[in-house]
Each structure stands twice: as C-alpha cells, then as structure tokens.
Amino acid sequence: MNKNMIFKGRIWLFDDAVDTDQILPGYAMAYPQDELKKYAMAGSAMPDFSQKVQVGDIIVAGNNFGCGSSREQAPVSLKSAGVSLIIAPTFARIFRRNAINIGLAVMQADLTTLVKTGDIITVDLKSGSVELPDGNVVSGHVPGENILAILAAGGLINKVRQQLTKQEV
Amino acid sequence: MNEIEEYLAAAAGQPEVQVGEDITIRVDLAMAHDVTAPLALTAFAEIGIDRVFDKRKVAFVADHVYPAPTVQARQGQRQMRNFANTYGIKMFEGEGVCHQVVAENYSLPRGSVVVGADSHTCTAGAYGALAIGVGSTEFAAAMATGTLDIEVPPVYEVVLDGILVPGVYAKDIILHLIGAFGTAGFTDKAVIFTGEWVRTASLEERMTISNMTIEMGAMLSYFSIKNDVGSVAKVHKFDVSMIVPLMAAPSSPANVQPVANLAGQTVTQVIIGSCTNGRINDMREAAAVFSHASINPNVNCIILPASQLVAQAMEDEGLTKIFRRAGATIANAGCGPCFGGHLGLAASDDVVISTTNRNFPGRMGSKESRVYLASPRTAAEAAVAGKIVTPGTVAELGGRTDE
Ligand code: SF4
What we know:
The complex is a heterodimer of chains A (about 170) and B (about 400).
Chain A: E1 6-13, H1 20-23, H2 49-52, E2 58-60, H3 73-81, E3 85-88, H4 93-101, E4 105-108, E5 120-124, E6 129-131, E7 137-139, H5 145-153, H6 156-168
Parallel strand pairs in A: 1-2, 2-3, 3-4
Antiparallel strand pairs in A: 1-5, 5-6, 6-7
Helix pairs in contact in A: 5-6
Chain B: H1 3-12, E1 22-26, E2 29-33, H2 37-47, E3 58-62, H3 71-87, E4 90-93, H4 98-105, E5 113-117, E6 130-133, H5 136-145, E7 147-151, E8 155-161, H6 170-181, E9 190-194, H7 196-200, H8 203-211, E10 220-223, E11 234-239, E12 246-248, E13 256-258, H9 259-262, E14 269-273, H10 274-277, H11 280-290, E15 300-304, H12 308-316, H13 319-326, E16 329-330, E17 351-354, E18 370-373, H14 376-385
Parallel strand pairs in B: 2-3, 2-5, 3-4, 5-6, 8-9, 8-11, 9-10, 14-15, 14-17, 15-16, 17-18
Antiparallel strand pairs in B: 1-7, 12-13
C-alpha cells in the first residue's frame, strides 16, 4: 500500500451490478487462498481477466459493484491478482468494507462514461481527484479518516494490531 | 436526531452523530457461523491477541453446513469448537440458523449493536437491535476490540399502514418493497419501519421483513415502536392492504410479480423454512395447507425449521405429523439448501418454490435451476398442486390463522 495514496494505473472497465458471483464464482471458494487470484472476475463478462491484469491496474465499474454475498474471498481474489484500486459510483456495503479491510483501496466516483479499458489515470485518494488521460481532472468522494487509516496500515488487521500494541505500551 | 442516530450516538459514546461521520461503536454481540468463522480465526491469529473482548459477547453457530456434508466443513467446525473452548465462548452446533439462535438465546435491548459475519444479520432489527453484517476480517477485529468502525448512514422511514388481506403475508410485504426499491435501493442507508401494520405485527413477521432488507442493500434495518422516530432523509408510505400475493421470479429477489401472473408454472421442489420463513407461524401456515391435501408426487418438499425450538414446537403442535403424512421431508434445523450447501440442491431442470431470501443464478445448486421466492402459504399450495397457484386454490384461506 502506498502511503501517499496516489494510484497510477491502467483501467479495466466493467458494467453495473458486478456481483460477488461474477468477481469470484462460488465454485472457486473451495480453492486455497493463494490460488484465488486465478479466478478473479472468472464469472464476469471478462472471464480471462486474471491472465490480462497486471500489478497496479485499476478497475472502473458501474453501480452496485460487489453486490450479493458477504464472501471476503471476492476482494481477496482481485487484490492478489494485482488490482490496486476499484472505482465505482456505488458499492455494495459489505464488499466495500471487505475490500478496505484487506487493504484494497476503493473510491466512489462515476468514471464509466469518461474512460475506457486501457486508459491510464492517476488518482489521489486523499483529495478524491482523478486525472484523466486528456489531462482533465474530475473529483470523486473522499474516503473518511477511518478508511484512510485502515488503508495506510495495509488493512484492518494491521491497524488493530497497531492499536492494541499502543494500548499496551 | 432520529431513533437510529440516537442509538448510534449512544453506542459511540458521543452526544450526537452526523450523517457520513466515521464513528467507532461498541459491540454487544459478535456472531459468526461455520462458513465465515474459519477465515476469521486466521485473521484473529494474525492480530496476535490472546483473548476476545468479552467472552459472553461472542457466539459461534454451526448452521450452514451442519451436519457436515464434507470433511472440510467438519474441519472448520472443529476449529471453531477448539477456539470456543480455548477462549471460553459459546458455540451452538445444530441448534438452528444463526439469526434465529441469536434471537432465542440473547436478550438484546433496543439499540444493542450486533455484528454478524453474515449478510442477513439485519434480521435482528426486527426486535430493535442495530444489526450489521460484516466480512470475516471485520468480525475478527470486532472479536478482538469489541468495537466496529462505521459511517453514519442516512436514515429512511418506511411506513407500513393498513391490514393484510387473507393470503398475503409479511413475506409479500418485503417482496413488494424489494420490487419497488430494487436490489440497491438502500445501499449504505438505514431503514426504519413504522406504521399501523408494524405496531400490530408479530415478532416473527417483523423478522421475515428485516431479514430481507439486505436484498435492498440496506446497511441497517430497524423496527420502531414509536409514532415519531425523529427527522429522516425521506419517508416512504405503503398501504399493505393493497398488496397481493407475490413472488420473486428467477433470478433476482427484485424480479417481483403477482403470483396470479405466474400461475400454471410446473414446480418440482419446494423448500419451506430458513431464517426468512422457518418459524412456528410459518410452519402453521404450511400445515394449514398440508392438513387438507398431500404433496404432489412430482414435487420434493423439504421443511427446514429455523431452530430446534421451532422443531420442538412443530412436534408439540402436531405439525410434524401433518408434514410427514403429506409426504414432506423434515430436515434438521439449519441452512440446508438455502445457499446451495446441502440437503436438497437443485438440478438444471428443477423449478423450485422457496421461502428463502435469494434466487440468484446457482444459489441453490445448478446455475440453470430456477428458483421462485414466496411465502410459506404460496409455497405449500404449490407443493400440493405441483404448479404455481394463487393462495386459497388448494385449501381455503382462514384469514390470519397464525396470530
Ligand atoms: S438460512 Fe439461508 S439466508 Fe439464512 S443464514 Fe442460512 S444460508 Fe443464510
């Protein structure tokens, strides 16, 4: 996790309502954690996503990304496949929290009509600004302090560990 | 502030809260089940702490894959049991679906915070708990710290006035709402239910509705007993007497249509039960149909009591006998086929009428199987007819037989 919360990466564009079965199909839940990345987006419109994605890439999607079950394996598969950030106008709440908790950044913004797959964008999460390929800057929702603190720690477990050690000192 | 904001402020130990504010709230009960707990135990071990925040306030429930259909499932339950014994926490095995087990075993005053590693944790809003579904990592953190970080959601009021007509139930009300608002209608939002109907509804009825608020994306669902809940973002009013028997057709809980429009569709499997509709009032409703007529030979009918207490009540009231005589199979209290785990998976050409809460493709087995969600009455009548029929076709409607 980069401490500055600045993400520069190549975009993969997805539609509205990408549910957890598309992100990580139920059958893949049985595989060991370190193999989940092979099944990232296996149930989606881009089933070969995991072979194409590179470390640092950004997913841009439509509304209600991650709806469906509370399976944490869904964001885990995306993160381990190399996805650094997911941008969508709205997320299903449990998916969004799961992503943040495992240290995968998400931002609320509607970019679906502004970018296409393959575009490179630069996102400053702390200010919520997105620099588009044409140099224009659009703004998204700035995540709350709590969220930024979890991401800065590299996930909720690290943050809790830091908190508990601080209390004991 | 409205009622939810007041409770959130109290749980955060601050005088007030603002919509969108990040707050840290105390947890009164943290619950996980045999699919989510094993992953949470790994996360808990990574935190590296040697105790849970309060052993009386953590509960494990083996319900999703109980009795274990695979060695791996049993391995997870053994892990949970060992952890529970080490840390002195309570584990319920085979006592029923987690949300029902929580309702029966914990007295949670209004405004209590329940954190559950299951998306249907919102069921507890029926009795006034602030019940939030989380993933495994967040559950592990809650188990360690006794707190949960949330953003204060905007609160919407759904007013349910009027009286249900015979053949229409709480399930039809929530299907009507999901149809109206869609699966993302209340994402990141909280819903307070009020109104004449709410004030007269039984706990079981309120649980059926609260259970499915996640199908509209809601973060919190709360049933108020007040007339005035304070200022909210928006008020939506419904007259429940206008609602007709409904079904969610394949493959979304929001694909809601009147049963009358779907009548005639052949049915091959019927599931009555789960955390949505597996309580004694639901069983009475189904038994009212099965005491008149037997199940169609082309239909598998599985009864899924939400808990052992429900199963016992079924026994005591003579319902078990009615179900068996009619040809139904009574499964153990638990999740069973609801999420495609075991005990009645659907084949590609199965058409299932289920009283559960989700009918996404493949939810109950084969991706090609078709699942319709309905009330216990509608489901039971379909089991007898072997096809979808409007309630009252197979056996006369007795009005509100369950209260
Ligand atoms: S009965 Fe179904 S919806 Fe309820 S907790 Fe079990 S699997 Fe989930």
